[in-house]
Structure formats: C-alpha cells, structure tokens
Design goal:
The protein is an all-alpha fold and about 110 residues long. The chain has one domain. It is built from 5 helices and no strands. The chain has helices at about 5-35, 40-50, 50-70, 75-100, 105-114. It is elongated, with a radius of gyration of 16 Å. The two termini are about 25 Å apart. The model has no long low-confidence stretch (mean pLDDT about 85).
C-alpha cells in the first residue's frame, strides 16, 4: 500500500488543480492574447473548450492503462503511471511558462486527463 500513496496524493493534487486552477490559467492566457477584446463569457467558453481534452485523455488513458494492467500487471502499470505523471507535470509547467492559448493548452488538458 505504501507504494500507492504517492499516486493517491498526486490524484488529489491533480483533481484540485484541474478543477480549480487550470480553467483560470487558460482564461488568463486567452485574455493576454486578445488584450481584453473578448468578453468574459467568450473567454470562459474557449477555456472550457480546451478542457474537453481532459475527458478525451481520460478515455484514452483509461483504456491504455487497463491494457497495461491486463497484459503486464499492476507493478508495470505503476511505473507507467509514474511516467505519465512526470510527463504531465513537464507539459503543465511548459504551459505555465509559455502562458499562451495554443496547442500546448490542449496537450496539457489531454495528458492531464490521461
């Protein structure tokens, strides 16, 4: 059970981040591009459109990790999850550094759902 605690902790952190802060970060990146010319409703609409990648990533990730568990076992699946978490963190940090509404936003939401 101790091996799974970091993943449980990460699940809590990621849920709080993408449910609370990610939409705000995406909205801020949209406002910087449009210099305030887009209304708040349009900004939220584009931010929530980017969040669709989260659901798509969850579908693909769930299927892939299910296959890994079935074929290789749960220990290998834990390693795969650690690789995904590292990749997710690097892509999310890249988005925060770039802070622009572009393909990186969709990659961030997709891999965060994965």
């Amino acid at each position: 059970m101790l091996k799974f605690l970091p993943q449980c902790l990460w699940t809590g952190i990621s849920l709080s981040y993408y449910s609370g802060m990610l939409v705000l970060e995406i909205s801020c990146s949209i406002d910087q591009i449009n210099c305030g010319s887009l209304d708040p409703q349009g900004t939220n609409k584009k931010a929530m459109l980017a969040m669709v990648g989260l659901g798509v990533g969850e579908m693909f990730g769930g299927q892939l990790i299910g296959q890994i568990i079935d074929i290789k076992g749960s220990k290998i699946a834990c390693v795969a999850n650690a690789i995904v978490m590292t990749t997710m963190t690097l892509i999310a940090l890249s988005f925060l550094i770039v802070n622009e509404y572009n393909a990186l936003v969709f990659a961030t939401t997709f891999i965060w759902g994965f």
